Amino acid sequence: MTPTRVLIVDDSATVRGLIRILLTRDPAIEIVGEAADPLEARAAIKATDPDVITLDVEMPKMNGLDFLDRLMRLRPTPVIMVSSLTAAGAETAIAALEMGAFDCVGKPGSGEQEQFGDVLLAKVKAAAGLRGRPRRESARQPAAERQPYRSDGRIVAIGASTGGVEALIAVLSQFPANGPPTVITQHMPATFTKSFAGRLDRLCRPAVCEAYDGAPLTPGAVYLAPGGAAHLRVEAGAPPRCRLVKSAPVNGHRPSVDVLFTSVTDAVGARAVGAILTGMGRDGAEGLLAMRSAGCQTFGQSESSCLIYGMPKIAFELGATQKQVSLATMASEILRATCAA
């Protein structure tokens, strides 16, 4: 089996060395080059033709986003952004994901190297499978004409992982300002979710923010689960409310899509709509099955429109998805299912 050929781009020799050591523990990975800045990276890409590139978010000599934009236009290659866990690093990483980067990981703190290595290795292997695939057309549509919409009170619960930045922007940008009460769990490093929620709020008509304990689920409100510290659950009430619960990871994730979906079923029964979008792994499949079994309408993103057909595939195989739809039509399906007659 041909090994996955990786180019490491980071201005820190220490970080480059750490990534090299962590990745080469797996014999299926070959490091074909290293570069300290985008100019060195450009030469290394021409010389080595890597399958996957790990790219530092903040580097000297050339803006990292400018480099990524040129790379995606001239020589599309799967890129995993490696970001410092700062507000500036998070903002840049979110922009990179919108531009076509495969995924992002946060640089490890003290004692986190092993976990960082496991996560990075899984993402590198998944990204390698995309080499040679045609670049997908953007699923983001111009904002739809304002049609009369009135929420019937149903809660919308959405789960996503790898590729979810682009997917969630595509879906939520089609929601009206008074759209359905929506809760989202997106797998993302802990410090990134606040920046992503802010980005969604600027791009979309509903009010989007990080979920907080006790947040009311009312029309026009969209809540994104904070990364890392707690699971996002929905609690019954008038209106239902968000709860942040500090408990162990589920399916290796905290927050977990399964936890969110299952809590929605417990809180409101059939008065909800579930959607599972692009992502690695199986988180959310069992929870979506619970939603469908309770009488909820459930949707899965179609394989052809997914960056990674992992989570939606498992959900489909379990019988959890009532209907598979393209990313371009996901928003209209959700709105149709939640619009008052």
TrEMBL record:
GO function term, MF aspect, one: protein-glutamine glutaminase activity
SMART domains: REC (SM00448)
Residues annotated as domain CheB-type methylesterase: 148-341
GO-annotated biological processes: chemotaxis
Domain spans labelled Response regulatory: 5-122
Organism: Methylocella silvestris (strain DSM 15510 / CIP 108128 / LMG 27833 / NCIMB 13906 / BL2)
Lineage: Bacteria, Pseudomonadati, Pseudomonadota, Alphaproteobacteria, Hyphomicrobiales
Protein name, UniProt field: Protein-glutamate methylesterase/protein-glutamine glutaminase
InterPro entries: CheB-like, CheB_C, CheY-like_superfamily, Sig_transdc_resp-reg_Me-estase, Sig_transdc_resp-reg_receiver
